[in-house]
C-alpha cells in the first residue's frame, strides 16, 4: 500500500532527522572547542598547527550548521557533505598525528602558560576525542545520504499515490460515462417504443 509505505518512510525519516540534528550540534560544539583550544594554548597562533586547527574548527562548524539545512535544498546538501567530508579527513589526520607524533605537536604549540605535562595529557585526551569526532562525522555523512534518499522516496511515493488516484478517478469517470450512455440508450428505446405503439394505434384507427 503506497500510503502505509509512505507513513513508514516518514516515521523513519523523522527519527533519523532528529538523531542527525543532535550529532550536528555535537560537531558544531567540537569545532568551536577546537578554535578555543588553539586560542588558549597558542597566542598568537602560528600557521601550523594554530591557523590550520582554526580553519579545521571553522570548517567543522560549517559542516554541522549546514546539516540543519532543508533536505530539498541542493546547496545545503552539497555544502554539508563537502564540508563534513573535508573536516572528517582533517580531523582523522590530526587524531592519528596526535597518536603517533604527539611530542612534535606539543613542540609546535611552543611554550604556553600551562605545564608541559598538563598539555601533554590534554593532547592525549584530544586524540581520543578527535577520533570519536571522526567516527561521528562518518555516521553523519552516511545518515545524511540516507535521509536524502528517504526524502526522494517520499516524493516518489506521493507521485505514485497521485497517479493511482488519477487512474482510479479516470476509470470511475469512464464507468459512469458508460452507465450514463446505457441509461440514455434505454430511455431512448423506451420512448421510441411508446411513440411507435401510440402512433401505431392511431394510424390503425
What do you see in this structure?
- This protein is mainly alpha-helical.
- The chain has one domain (2-162).
- The protein contains five helices and no strands.
- It has helices at 2-41, 47-66, 74-100, 102-109, 116-204.
Assembly of the depicted chains: single chain
- Low-pLDDT windows of residues: none
Distance between the termini: 68 Å
Average pLDDT for all residues = 78
Spatial shape = rod-shaped
User: Per DSSP, what share of the residues sits in E-state strands of 2 or more residues?
Assistant: under 5%
How many strands, what sense, and barrel or not for the largest sheet? none
User: In sequence order, what are the helices and strands, one letter per element?
Assistant: HHHHH
Helix content: over 70%
The overall number of domains is: 1
Helix run count: 5
Return the structural class: mainly alpha
Work out the number of β strands: 0
Compute the CA-based radius of gyration.
35 Å
Transmembrane segments: 20-39, 51-69, 81-102, 122-141
Keywords: Membrane, Transmembrane, Transmembrane helix
